[in-house]
Amino acid sequence: MRMRNTLLSAGLLVVCLSLGACDLIDSGSDSESVELEGIWQSTVASVSETTVLFLPNGTLKIVEADFPFESCTTGTGTWSLEGTTLVLNIRVDGFSENSKVAVENRGGTLAITVDGETEVFRPVTQMVGCIKYGWGRWQGTLSALTPGGVQDFASNLDIQILLPPEFGLFQIISWAQGPDEGCDGAPGCLFDQTRLLLNGEVQSGGDGALRLGSYDLEGSPSSVGFFQGKYWTDPADVESGFEASRCFPTCGAPQPGASGSFVLTFVEPDRIAGTFLFTGIKANGDALALTQGVVDLTYR
């Protein structure tokens, strides 16, 4: 059963939530309270995987992967309970539809039945994004104002986002490609070199979760964590990098003249957004500033 034709299109469902021993609800009995909050996942090997997140504030997110077609769809919306009825509003690609579905208490899993077919969902600890399946690419906005003008870095991206239960970290790398001097102009012989690197890491202590807020070079008391930025004026020249980091030239305090911060405003496994600026220092002591940095990238 493809969830794109059920939950993602808000079709008619029968939902059974497993909380203990099977306890079917009928009109003449008192029903147990239904607990939907959490993350539920259904996997049909080599066919599909669907993950649904019900949040306490009444919002939801759905991610469905279709393995034969190597496609992934994300939906968002709202949910609420009216007695034993689950009220859904689900939005996918600008399309929105409302639905009311029956909820029954059973015991351990979330079962969705459509036209006689039942798909079983089990609780999982972490919400997934389409990036898990590797069929798409990062797209959106990654730009900054340099001394030479506004630069667009939103190509050849390599992004890593670690969320709970892993230690909080985000890293954004924009690569450049060009003819490799050692190839003597041979077709397809290219170098790969970083143009821009942005890195944020939460401070030690606490649960280590990645949080929204400001990351700076020194991890000051008012910041969420540490920030590192580096920009190469000539991607073909590894010595052209200007770095702002608490570990340049050695770990401890930033090099005199270096400064910068990254304000993280949104983060999920398949989307990151924020603003940044930094003044980087070159190995020879020269300084260069990037300002008006904007990040809004989605994996799709």
Record keyword descriptors for this entry.
single chain, 300 residues, mainly beta, Lipocalin, 2 domains, eleven-stranded mixed beta sheet, nine-stranded mixed beta barrel, 20 strands, 0% helix, elongated, disordered N terminus
Summarize the structure in words.
The protein is mostly beta strands and 300 residues long. It has two domains: 3-130, Lipocalin; 137-299, no CATH class. It is 0% helix and 54% strand. It is built from no helices and 20 strands. The chain has strands spanning 14-17, 38-44, 48-54, 59-66, 71-82, 85-92, 95-105, 110-114, 117-124, 138-146, 149-152, 157-162, 169-179, 190-202, 213-216, 225-232, 241-244, 259-268, 271-281, 287-299. The strands form two sheets. Strands 10, 11, 12, 13, 14, 15, 16, 17, 18, 19 and 20 form an eleven-stranded mixed sheet that branches. Strands 1-7-6-5-4-3-2-9-8 form a nine-stranded mixed β-barrel. The model is unreliable at 1-6, 9-14 and 16-33 (pLDDT under 50).
